[in-house]
Design a protein that fits this description.
This protein has 4 helices and 7 strands. The protein is α+β, with helices and mostly antiparallel strands and 196 residues long. It has a 5-stranded antiparallel β-sheet, with helices on both faces. The protein has a two-stranded parallel ribbon with strand order 1-7. A hairpin with a 5-residue loop joins strand 5 and strand 6. The chain is globular. The mean pLDDT is 94.
Length: 196
């Protein structure tokens, strides 16, 4: 089932998400719904807070990036078919030089900005079978994982922009929060609180 994606401005996107265990209700159904929702919106990642659940779970499928001719053959091969579920993830290490890449987010449609992130990460997590994993990723794989990981920490990519960029985007972000935007996938917009 395709679920609505929560839009910028909803409080769930600002919560630090909670760990879950294999007894989480209807886990398999949730997982299937998240994959379907992500693919329907043409995303490469989706975190549970983006569908309104403050739990530490996100999924990634970087296959669409494997067609990018600007990437090396090795990078394209690493991205092709990379499909994973991350549960109760914890980034243990971020290292290497920071590099900028143009990021977007399904919860913040029609806004893309260059964001700087470290090039390599080491992350521990549970996979879809709740088995413990610990892996190191770099390049675009690391970046997509960092972006989704931020969601379970209550952080959005716009938080990483300069004060000037944030001011320039303020009106557009407000429009998203108020539902004054057209998207080709299901979204849930927060009810705007009246100005105090």
């Amino acid at each position: 089932m395709i679920l609505p994606i929560v839009a910028y401005g909803d409080a769930v996107l600002r919560k630090v998400a909670k760990d879950i265990d294999k007894e989480y209700p209807k886990f398999q159904e949730l997982l299937e719904n998240m994959w379907e929702t992500m693919y329907n919106a043409n995303g490469v990642g989706l975190a549970a807070p983006q569908i309104g659940l403050p739990i530490r779970m996100f999924l990634v499928d970087t296959t669409p990036f494997s067609d990018d001719e600007d990437l090396s053959k090795e990078e394209r091969e690493a991205l092709n078919g990379f499909k994973k579920v991350f549960i109760n993830a914890k980034i243990e290490l971020e290292e290497g030089d920071e590099w900028a890449f143009n990021e977007g987010c399904l919860s913040i449609p029609d806004i893309r900005e260059d964001v700087k992130r470290k090039g390599t990460i080491t992350i521990s997590y549970l996979d879809a079978d709740f088995k413990e994993q610990r892996d190191t990723y770099d390049g675009l794989l690391a970046r997509v994982i960092q972006h989704e990981y931020d969601h379970i920490e209550g952080i959005l990519f716009t938080d990483k922009l300069s004060s000037l960029k944030k001011r320039l985007l303020k009106a557009r972000l407000k429009n998203i929060a108020q539902g004054k935007i057209r998207v080709d996938y299901r979204m849930r917009f927060p009810e705007m609180k009246k100005a105090r």
